[in-house]
Design brief:
about 270 residues, mainly beta, SH3 type barrels, endopeptidase fold (from Nostoc punctiforme), 3 domains, 25 strands, about 10% helix, about 35% strand, SH3_16, hydrolase, C40 family peptidase, PG_Endopeptidase_C40
């Protein structure tokens, strides 16, 4: 079983794993991420697998050493979060549609900022205060928010909004993100389901033959890497070569990655848009 998608801490598991693991079964406890950005770890105090954002719903399955083993609702990803990153369940009304934003102590641009907010964070707007939204965590410019159901339709355009963002292994925000983080951020923003890592994302959409003409919105996969097709000539990807989100000619990228022992393209997928 893939630990990333298996709600089993080693001691406790969700009932969906009944008969498949030796564990105490629990329904878990509903919660949500209360920090702007938090690392989802492979084990308590361990390496980052992915990141979760403010307002992301989680199910808490186990507690150990100041950490909670959780499953994220948005993609089913499982891992350990610092306990102080988790709060009670939220009922978000809006999401951050700007590349990044801030929480302010008061509804005015001169007010001190409380924290930075990443693209995709989810918030409950209590009231409108001029050009600011009042939330339980502070005030946010209304221009940086969309209603929860108000979603863009082109994930590549969303991904283009991250151009120049630094590369960060396991990152999921404009402060730093990796190849699969870029794909997931764009797809979730458009209301499209998407798992967290590139090997999992390889199951998305429909397969394309090697000779098929590529279109904007297709995905190209290498072992451990994924890129958006921006147009017939270019891909858009977060990559360790430039350590940033950048465009790259398709032919050049394929040749460069092969020359750097990254192997050939192993899959081409076309998303099915509803």
């Amino acid at each position: 079983m893939d630990r990333r998608s298996t709600p089993f801490s080693g001691r406790f598991a969700l009932p969906s794993l009944r008969g498949r693991v030796e564990a105490t079964l629990t329904e878990g406890k509903a919660g949500s991420v209360r920090l702007p950005l938090a690392d989802l770890l492979a084990h308590p105090g361990g390496a980052r697998d992915r990141q979760v954002l403010l307002g992301d719903a989680v199910t808490v399955i186990d507690l150990q050493d100041g950490h909670a083993f959780v499953q994220a609702a948005k993609d089913g990803y499982c891992g350990w979060l610092a306990e102080d990153a988790i709060g009670p369940p939220m009922q978000p009304t809006h999401w951050v549609s700007a590349r990044s934003s801030h929480l302010y102590t008061a509804p005015k641009v001169q007010a001190p900022e409380v924290a930075a907010l990443p693209f995709g964070a989810r918030l409950t707007v209590r009231a409108s205060r001029g050009s600011f939204a009042e939330t339980p965590f502070g005030h946010v410019p209304m221009a940086h928010l969309r209603k929860l159901e108000d979603r863009p339709r082109d994930p590549v355009s969303v991904a283009e909004g991250f151009l120049g963002a630094p590369y960060l292994w396991g990152g999921n925000s404009a402060a730093g993100l990796d190849c699969s983080g870029l794909v997931q951020a764009a797809m979730l923003a458009c209301g499209l389901p998407c798992p967290g890592d590139s090997d999992q994302q390889q199951a998305l959409g429909q397969p394309l033959s090697d000779g098929a003409a590529l279109e904007r919105g297709d995905l190209l996969f290498w072992k451990g890497h994924v890129a958006w097709v921006a147009d017939k000539r270019r891909i858009l990807h977060a990559n360790g070569h430039t350590m940033s989100v950048t465009f790259e000619p398709i032919a050049s990228a394929i040749a460069r990655i092969l020359a750097q022992d990254g192997g050939p393209v192993i899959a081409r997928r076309r998303l099915v848009m509803s």
